Amino acid sequence: MHIIINDAALQQKFENALNKLASPKDLMQRISVALKQATDDNFDAEGRPKWAGLKYPRKGGKILQLTGQLAGSITSFSGANYAGVGSNKVYAAIHQFGGKTKAHVIRPKNKKALAFGGMVFKYVNHPGSVIPARPYLPMDKSGNLQKEAYDDVAHTIDTYLKNIF
Known about the structure:
Blueprint: H1 8-22, H2 25-45, H3 69-72, E1 75-78, E2 83-86, H4 92-97, E3 99-100, E4 104-106, E5 114-116, E6 119-121, E7 124-126, E8 130-131, H5 147-164
Antiparallel strand pairs: 1-2, 3-8, 4-7, 5-6
Helix pairs in contact: 2-5
């Protein structure tokens, strides 16, 4: 296929577009920012759709944001042919996908004993907790984007393509 353009300015614009499409690193970076924003929006909305409520509701604060560490750990990343978002927190996956924590022993940190319901213990054997899935990342287990993230990424791609042509 041959395209002949007799206008130097248009030829340059066409070559620039081809170069940007051949190496979409800038587009991937923009997509990663869109994914990060969709993730931040999921935390703000406490899920889209809404996350399961807390077994023991607390006053104030949002679900998955008791300390803000999980939401604060979200980073975007990109390269020449990929874009993504994630967390480096050990507990991030169980909140995204749900699951059961391991049985473990709870010991006092700052006192000599633990007190529950008027009783005192040196330690407690915890059977583990069932954590419901609260997908804060904008994708499901199969990697499909949630609707809002899909729309944001599609808009990012459309805008990028319009700007290079």
